[in-house]
Amino acid sequence: MARSRDESSPLFAGNAAGTLRLIVYLALAMVLMVLDHRNGWLWRVRYAASVVVEPVYRLANLPGAGIRTLSVAFADRKLLTEQNQRLREDLLLANARLNRMAGVAEQNQRLKELLDTQRSLDLNVQLARVVGVDLGAWQQRLVLNLGSRDGVKPGQPVIDAHGVMGQVVEVLPTTSVVMLVTDPAHAIPVVVERSGLRTVAYGARDGDGMVLPNIPLAADVRPGDRLLTSGLGGRFPPGFPVGKVVAVAPAATGMFRVAQVQPAADLERSEDVLLLHDQAEPDGPPAPAAAAGPPASLAPAPGATAAAPAAAAPVGTRTPVQPRASAAPPATAASTP
Questions:
Q1: pTM (two decimals)
Q2: Cβ count within 10 A of residue 234
């Protein structure tokens, strides 16, 4: 409904006093704007007012900013959690791939060493992979992925890129069992590379390394000496590294010295091995020579007399002396016309 005159604003009242106040206010505002524009008198007032009003603005805006921060935090929490989980999975996958690559590189290095060993020694070998390990205190065995179907035979020497590992003791159709040189039941003839002393290296009873139990007191064996296969017995070819002497001490009886030997082969970490097919010839006395004599075609027929060949001889020809069992009287041969 229409406003009454009493409810109207006094500034826009219909009398002359209201109009005069309006003109005065407008003039004052124009004067202040002109002075502020030309001389900048009111900037200090505005600066002081902004210093006072700004905290009020911040305080008034604080609830809204807090609400926005909480909403963003709660809204992005799930996203951040998922991203963190994905990053962790990617990191684990990258580490697994890196470890796998390192393992493949190490495996390639071992295979390269085995190949270099085969080429340098010109051996007839067969590559096999270790599929089982039994490194206990009472026996030291490996299981290979080759068996009788692949031509593996009992007694075959097994080596890696560093030295002798052992020999095949059991052959199955698709797998074979290898007795390591550290097995307490294993023995291998060796020779000290520096001094040429020949002896036998046995597997230690605790399965840790090998021992030389019967070294004479006057023998020249020192820590650091390398042991090579001597070839005696014909099982292991000569010249393959077996181990290195790490300690020498007197035996409990005082009649011999005992040497502790560290195997040259990497028994605990080798995954690929070589099976030797060219075995050494056994060293020992030569085989007996074949019986010598006249050819069998020149031997006389059974039951034939000695007179027949004598009669065929011409006059004046000297008849060879025959054994007593078949000899004929000389007169008979002489009286033949």
A1: 0.52
A2: 14
